[in-house]
Amino acid sequence: MSNILRRGRLEDVQEDKILRYTSSMEADRWLFNYDIAVDLAHTVMLKEQCIINKEDCSKILRGLLRIREEGMEELDFSYEDLHISLESRLIDIVGEEVGGRMHSGRSRNDEVATCIRLALREELTGLLEEIFVLRNTLINLAEKHINTLMPGFTHMQHAQPTTLAHHLCAHEAAFSRDFDRAQDAFSRINLCPLGAAAFASTGFNLNRKRTQELLGFEGLLENSMDAVSSRDFLIECASVFANLMVNLSRMAEELVVWSSSEFNFIELNDMYVSTSSIMPQKKNPDSAELLRGKTGVAFGALMSLLTICKGLPLSYNRDLQEATPNICRSVETVRASVNVMEGMIRTMRVHIDVLADKSIEGFTTATELADTIVRETGIPFRTAHQIVGMLAKEGGKFTLEKIDSKAKIVLEESLSGIGLTETMITEALDPVSSINRRKIAGGPAPEEVLRYLAKRQTDLELDKQEIANLKNIINSAFENLLAIVNEYGKA
Ligand code: ARG
Prior knowledge:
This protein has helices at residues 16-22, 32-48, 54-70, 82-94, 96-99, 108-144, 164-189, 208-214, 224-229, 232-258, 286-310, 323-347, 352-358, 366-377, 381-394, 400-411, 422-429, 431-437, 446-488, and strands spanning 149-154, 157-163, 191-192, 219-220, 266-267, 349-350. The longest helix has 43 residues, at 446-488. Among the domains are: 109-122 and 165-203 and 216-359, Fumarase/aspartase (Central domain) (Fumarase C, Chain A, domain 2); 366-429. The protein has 19 helices and 6 strands. The strands form 3 sheets. It has a two-stranded antiparallel ribbon. Strands 3-4 form a two-stranded parallel ribbon. Strands 5-6 form a two-stranded antiparallel sheet. α8 (208-214) links the parallel β3 (191-192) and β4 (219-220). By secondary structure, it is mainly α. Arginine binds next to α6. Arginine is lined by residues 24, 81, 83, 108-109, 112, 316, 318, 320-321, 324.
């Protein structure tokens, strides 16, 4: 059959290399199932509005179900996109007299915008679920390591002792914000552009509310020009993904460092590592490194989307076709990265003894010693800071005599001692008691971390319900659509 799109106005056949340049068929695989859903919903609505008759509607619906069965591979890839190729296949099956009516009151512009929103909505729901699992794993691991000492770092230098639980909770907190951002983006994706047609809507008496409902959208993207030309929802999502990748990549960086011989804090499970083709002893943290590297895909997609959209006049421009593969690649990378991170965390071995030994290395309890001086003697913090700084510079053991002698220099007084006892010093230098004291909101003290974890569990439970809710809305809309299609599709 001749090309149903080009046959009227244009030369029927395009040179292969030009077709390859302009076609979105390959990238459109991502949209196949959603395009069928959009076609089904539109056809049902056309019939209900008496724009097509019952018999034609039933034939079109059955044709579409058959195309869905046959799959994307059966379509003609010499068309410039999925939408027109699918329509052409329908016309092959049911004839133009019937199939030629499906596109009434519609354009590929509102069609593709609807498909992208449906596909991304599904991906985002999956992503929310995956972030949930990662957060859950972090919380579960944290529960096991409330008392696992480790050095906390600033500037990559040993800073103060903390616990592994406290550290893991910090990552979980970041991922919970990524979760919230994804959820927020969802609400702006879940709006229906269908019925906008090319940009000026249509003179056919379409029922936009009806297709919106059939596809399970929360509302309409009302202005028909905005509906076909806006892709800010893609930029928003790409930015959410980029942020998530930043957080994942930072964590991956820690896993790489922590599994080095210098640190030896953890050992990654064999599943996530590789060895060298020449150095047989090597166990390389490749999955974590690749995650770090794949961050570029997410950043690149965001930059591409911003660039694609920035100079476009209203309304639809073909440039927008280039947006789709970017978001598709980005969401695929991000979802896989969340999964890999979750697995690495869940299966890694934690070297508790090494972490404990290292927790005091580099005088990490210096702050607590200064704090103790302040609490016990009333000396201002800045002065205590100087005294302890001088002790640190000198190195060696921190005895009562040494503290007193430095205090004497700093305070320029001939006092016999500042009033500390050996017990106070021992306690200040003990990482466990230092951590136990840090029990204000958000601190690493086990009792505080326990309280915090209980709260996070409750938050996670709410998020779980929210995901189930979203999935339920989407799935029941599709079930309902299929039930109507089966009903209307009866011969
Ligand atoms: N493949 C196109 C895209 O992804 C579909 C819309 C085509 N519309 C048009 N006016 N050529 O944007």
